[in-house]
Amino acid sequence: MAVPKRKLSSARKNKRRSNVWKLQAPALMKCPQCGEYKSPHRVCSHCGFYNSRKVVEVKGA
C-alpha cells in the first residue's frame, strides 16, 4: 500500500486547499419596478414587488 514517506507541511497542505474556500460576491439584479438592487427570485425589500405583482406592503417607503 502506498504511504507518504514524509509528512506534508502545513503550508503545502494549505496551498492546495486555498481554492476551495474562496468567497463569491452575492448575485444581485435590478428590480424592474424601482431599480434597486435585490437578490434574484426574492421579493424586493424596497417596493414589495415580485414578478411584476405587488406581494408585500412596505412600511415607510
TrEMBL record:
Listed GO MF terms: structural constituent of ribosome
Keyword Ribonucleoprotein attributed: yes
Cross-referenced InterPro entries: Ribosomal_bL32, Ribosomal_bL32_bact, Ribosomal_zn-bd
Protein name: Large ribosomal subunit protein bL32
GO cellular component: large ribosomal subunit
Protein family (similarity comment): Belongs to the bacterial ribosomal protein bL32 family.
Superkingdom of the source species: Bacteria
Record key words, sorted: Ribonucleoprotein, Ribosomal protein
Keyword Transferase recorded: no
HAMAP family, A to Z: Ribosomal_bL32
BP-aspect Gene Ontology terms: translation
